[in-house]
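Sequence only, no structure available. Ideas?
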Amino acid sequence: MSLFERAYLTAWQPRMNKAQGRRLAVWEDFMREWIQRDDFYASAESLLLVGEDPEFQAYFRRLLVDERGAPAPATRVLLEG
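Reply:
I predicted one. Tokens follow.
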């Protein structure tokens, strides 16, 4: 999640030119792929987003809803491994 946060903080701007928009779109595609993973989605809200930048949290929550149709569950999930 920290990698996604850094990508967002360095790539996102209120007004982006075409190249900047493409750069963010590549990262967003990667984030969306991870959101499709059930284990990642299940732990996003309760574990992975904790302590991240508030603007990034809001952005990522919109992606969660956009991809999965609902916010990530708030229950804590233990990750295997």
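The first helix runs from residue 2 to 11.
Hope that gets you unstuck.
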